[in-house]
Write a structure and sequence with these properties.
Layout (H helix, E strand, L loop, with lengths): L69 E4 L2 H7 L8 H11 L7 E3 L6 H4 L5 H9 L23 H20 L5 E4 L20 H9 L6 E5 L6 H6 L6 E8 L23 E6 L5 H19 L3 E5 L17 H12 L5 E4 L6 H24 L6 H8 L11
Parallel strand pairs: 1-2, 1-3, 3-8, 4-5, 4-7, 5-6, 7-8
Amino acid sequence: MNNEDQFDFDDAGDSIVKPPMDPHEAPRKRVKFQVPDEEEKEQAPAIPTENQPEDSTEDPDKGNESSLKIGYVCSIPYVTTCALLPIHKGRAVIVHALLQAYDLLDDLLIIDPSPASDRQLLAFHDIDYISSLKANNNKCNEKCVEFGLEDDCAPFNNVYNYAKMVAGASLSAVDSLVQGECQIAVNVEGGRHHAKKDHASGYCYVNDIVLSILSLLDTYSRVLYIDIDIHHGDGVEEAFYSTNKVFTLSFHKHAPGFFPGTGGKDKHGSGRGLHHNLNVPLNDGLTDADYLPLFTRITSAVRDRFMPQAVVLQCGMDCLGGDPLGSWCLTPNGVATCVEHIASWNLPSLLLGGGGYNSPNVARSWVRIMDKLRDHSKTHDQGEGASEGKERYASEISDDIPEHKYL
């Protein structure tokens, strides 16, 4: 897809239903779910370590000195398929249309996603669960309860195609990162952090985050996962709880009766993964002034100790004020500032969406994020002397929304 293409979201037709992939087609290489532990002498230092190893030569601030390119996952079939998710009905279309109205998709690498194959889904998910998901397309049978396909994760029309598209989109973004086509890859409709190996949960039918991290581990030996959704990223924590190759860091609300009920500050990982999991449970009413210094300090400390080679950031927008399922008061600019902080590390970074149940607020936030990233990219390319970026951000993104069909 060319960057100049305009998306007509009403012109998708039956194209959202993709035929199954050829079983004889050679799949993209993916690591198996059982992440092997590194040898003792090669372990990355854990958070409690006082000093960095003497032979460490990595500079967390150095990053990639080449031109910073931003990749953005988008296609008509993908956007229209994601818009079918009942809890986010139409959200994908609203978000992408507003980004386009602000011309924020210009100059980006547009990544046309491919649906994940069964083989790729099975890199993490259980074969019986995937078979049940496929069989329960818009209906339920006796195995629904066993695999969590009820209530908030009830089957809906084209649910299996939806799951393959979301997973495939994040994997396509990873491919662009590892091939050096971009340094930051964005999949707004990814970030489904509650799905388990054999269980749907919290509106999440497939865990594209776990699949993406496993794929990144084909190339990078240490991956840092950061989650700012107001709900704890339980599916990702569980998947990597016992490995030292992935550090999982989650900022979330933790209170009795609040979903998913996990994410206590006493959970630090197990086995070789001990001290490679950090939960930051927070209270109601959190504002930018409370959150941003905390986020910056903790993420920087984890980066300095863990020394990641790649980063995955989940931006669930239910952390925003006014979200019907949330209770924090973050602003779109506050969330964008978090993203800008991670982007400043200049590491290969996968940026994903997640929760967010006030669609206009979600769209506003992605406008702020993509503009911050565009500004960061230009400043990066122009060198340290480019100081006009901060002023441009305030002056060019207007609160007067451009005319478009969803205004």
